Amino acid sequence: MRRGFAGRLIELEQRVIGELETAVLWLVEIGDAVALPTTQKSDAISLAGRRLRSAGRNIDADLVCVTARHAPVASDLRLVLALVQVAHTEGLIGNQFELISHQLAAIKATVPDRHGTGTKVSSMATGGGALLKRSATAFASRDLVLARRLDREDDALDQLNREVFETTLELEGAAEIRELGLRHVLIARSLERIGDNAVDIAEQTEFLVTAELREFTDASHPKPKGA
């Protein structure tokens, strides 16, 4: 009985990590789509977001079912609780994918990115993907050192987010140029949130290893500084 429960937890954790790795690949696609938006790309990103959210809900439901049939020991219960939180976080990332897809669908590819906000947003997608990949690695390997480092690495995304916001705030000229900047601001905000989600996953690594739940920073809530 105990062996079967442990096996199911391993399977569910692999599913969670697999979904995170898929999300990392889609962040690369988002970076490309910002540089060259098309309807096909925005639709695909929206679908990826819905699938990720659905996968998170399914994993959560399976965790509840498998735990209800057993009496987990403390270490198993910590893993269950951590996986529930990470599955929920995957759903939040899926939501951000959909928000990003809505903005991409509204961008006109003919409008030039004269102020470079799109380039910075693309860099944020790349950086967010790298951050999410490291958070998945830290969780899977129970690497506490790596997990604790991610909060500092997230600062780079926060800085780019502020730069996109501040650049757009100063934009002048044609309405379509200012609209492009505003849509880049909204995409940047979603990518900054995904960076915070990666830190949230790292915090679950801390919980698994130390049995203590603490926030590295207030990553899950809006920061007062910047956009």
Provide an overview of this structure.
There is one protein chain. With 227 residues, this protein is mostly helical. It is built from seven helices and no strands. Helix 1 runs antiparallel to helix 2 and helix 5 packs antiparallel against helix 7.
Approximate strand percentage: under 5%
CATH topology: Methane Monooxygenase Hydroxylase, Chain G, domain 1
Radius of gyration from the alpha-carbon trace, in angstroms: 19 Å
Helix content: over 70%
Specify the CATH homologous superfamily. Phosphate transport system protein phou homolog 2, domain 2
- Main sheet specs: none
Backbone structural class: mainly alpha
Mean pLDDT: 91
Count of distinct structural domains: 1
Separation, N- and C-terminal Cα atoms: 51 Å
Count of helix runs:
7
* Overall morphology: elongated
- Uncertain residue segments: 219-227
| SSE succession | HHHHHHH
How many DSSP-defined strands? Answer: 0
Tell me which CATH architecture applies here: Up-down Bundle
CATH class: Mainly Alpha
Secondary-structure topology with pairs:
Layout: H1 2-35, H2 39-68, H3 74-106, H4 117-141, H5 144-153, H6 155-169, H7 175-210
Helix pairs in contact: 1-2, 1-3, 1-4, 2-3, 3-7, 4-5, 4-6, 4-7, 5-7, 6-7
